[in-house]
Each structure stands twice: as structure tokens, then as C-alpha cells.
Amino acid sequence: MKKMQVEIWSDILCPFCYIGKRRLEKALATFEHAAEVEINWRSFELDPEANPTPGVNQYARLAAKYGKSEEWARQMSANMTQMAAEEGLAFDFDRVVPANSLRAHRLVHLAAQHGQQDAAKERLFKAYLEQGLNINDEAVLTCLGAELDLPAAEVEHLLTSTTFEQEVRHDEYQARQIGVRGVPYFVFDDKYAVSGAQPTELFQEVLEKVWEEARPQPMQLTGTAGAACDIDGNC
Fold this sequence. Notes:
Elements: E1 4-10, H1 15-29, E2 37-43, H2 58-66, H3 70-85, H4 102-112, H5 117-129, H6 138-147, H7 152-159, H8 165-177, E3 185-188, E4 192-195, H9 200-214
Parallel strand pairs: 1-2
Antiparallel strand pairs: 1-3, 3-4
């Protein structure tokens, strides 16, 4: 039987993407057919041209981007930290190192070839949002690749080439084709889309709905039972 496909467009730099990942996982933990669900992560760069200035922290960057005060950026980040804590995540925006995410997306594509796509996504989220690691740094990505048991030679080649960049661009092209303008963005069996880090309960409802629609149960018609033979040989 074909598995249910869930495609997720996200960016490592997006806090709501990590929160959305955890909420979907909680929904899957209560879903009877979770073993028949296949997750596919798709790349999406919120700011492809990002080239953060060394020494400029996350709060100053956000304030400049939105034309707000640094105090506003700190309050917004504190609210997001509280939301993440409710999902068991420990965001630390004081330590976040603003970075370009292209290399990290390419590492996820490499990990997918070794059955480690979801693990790579999880590790990169944690590195960026909880541990204050620079996810565009070669040494950091080399260490993370080793943690994921990815072949060292392939990780080294990735970091000294443009390997998997076309795959990232293709994911982003697909996102544009279906009108994705923000992440996280979840697509279930190419049929239903969920935008944003929605509550766990909504993910549970969508999983059940998609499963039932793809695998309808026989309908028992009402009325008097017709002539039949049963499994005990009675006719």
C-alpha cells in the first residue's frame, strides 16, 4: 500500500518551522497509521541573498529588517521562546548567529541520500535555534555531518562545491508554483495544504481526513440481509 506523503517546505532560520515540526510529530505520535506516513523536507530560503554582517546580533538584524526597535525584537523573540517551550524546545535567541541557510539546505539533501533527512533537519534546527552555532560555517557543518554519520568525503565535497544547489532551487521553484509565500508549509498527499505552525489538533484532523479519503471503508447498505453463505459454511 502506498504511504501517505507529507511534504514540508521550511527554512532552518525559521523558528515557527521547528515548532511546526514538533507539533506534527506530536500528531503522528497519536496517529494509528503513523508508520504509513512518509515525510519529505523541501528547501525554502526566506532570504536567499542574506549575507549577515559579523557582530550584528539577531535582535539588531530583526529590528533593521522590520523597521522596529531592538526592544520590540527582544519582546517578539521572548514570546516565540515561550511558545517553543510549550513544545519542549529551548530557543536561545541571545546565542543565535545570523547566517545564510543555503549550505544547510544542501546538507539536508545529502543526508536524504543516506536516509538521514529528518535527522539532519532536526539537528540543524537545534544547532541554530538552541545552540548558537553558525550553520553556514564549514567546520560546524563538518561536525554535524559526522554526528549524522554522513560520509566525510561527501560532506567535504559538498562544502567545496555547488552540489545539491540545483535540488534546493528546484524545491523553491515548486514552492513558487503552488503559491508558497511563507513557511512552514505542509502538503498532504498533494491534496491538502496546511500553512504555518498550526496546533497539534489540526494536524491530527488532517492526517485522519487524508487517510480516510485515500482508503475509503466499504459502506454497509441498510435493508434486509440478502441470501449469503458465511465463513462457517452455512448457506
